[in-house]
Specification:
Strand order of the largest sheet: 7-4-9-8
Low-confidence stretches: none
Mean pLDDT: 96
Strand content: 35-45%
CATH class of the largest domain: Alpha Beta
Order of helices and strands: EEEEEEEHEEEHH
Number of strands: 10
Shape: globular
CATH topology of the largest domain: Nucleoside Triphosphate Pyrophosphohydrolase
Largest sheet: 4 strands, mixed
Distance between the termini: 25 Å
Number of domains: 2
Length: 184
């Protein structure tokens, strides 16, 4: 660690306690000894699945995201339930959202997608050996699945058709993984 950069919590309170998110408001002591406040979203964490078919095509979703009032292209993903193992969560989310299960799972990495205002982390998994089945969407969940080729996805990232951060990062990981340049 870099102790000369560390902020120390002096006081904490819950500013908002919702069904899904909580907002924390802390008073911290800065490295120079002064105090400041920090507001941030507490998040249980999530998983992201990079599902790759035997032919190299990639399973994706299209889903409306209310905060931005638009439909986004994304990898299957979902919130980790309390006490849930992250690999089990990834398996559950892939099946619930797409109907697919996978015979080969590999942990890829953990990312922190909003470090300035949230403690959220996302664990990314590569899923291969996909087997079609019946999906089990959550109540109120609406999405479409489709497949794309990696070059197409890279072009969508370049042109701004894919802007979701977990999907952008997952696409760049897939580029390296499928080329054999990186190992999970």
């Amino acid at each position: 660690m870099d102790p000369h950069l560390i902020e120390v919590q002096v006081d904490t309170q819950v500013a908002y306690d919702g069904h899904f998110l909580k907002v924390q408001k802390d008073i911290v002591r800065l490295p120079d000894g002064k105090q400041s406040s920090r507001e941030y979203i507490k998040h249980p964490g999530a998983v992201v699945v990079l599902p790759v078919f035997d032919d190299g095509s990639i399973l994706l979703e299209r889903q409306f995201r209310y905060p931005l009032h638009d439909v986004f292209i994304e990898f299957p993903a979902g919130k980790i339930d309390p006490g849930e193992d992250t690999l089990e969560c990834a398996k559950r989310e892939l099946q619930e959202e797409t109907g697919y299960t996978a015979t080969d799972w590999q942990f890829v990495c953990t990312i922190h997608n909003a470090i300035a205002y949230s403690d959220e982390h996302l664990d990314i998994f590569l899923a291969r050996g996909l087997i079609a089945g019946e999906r089990k969407l959550d109540e109120g969940e609406f999405l479409e699945t489709f497949t794309a080729a990696l070059p197409e996805m890279l072009e969508w990232v370049r042109t701004g058709k894919i802007t979701d951060v977990k999907t952008v990062i997952g696409t760049f990981w897939l580029e390296r993984l499928l080329a054999g340049q990186w190992k999970p």
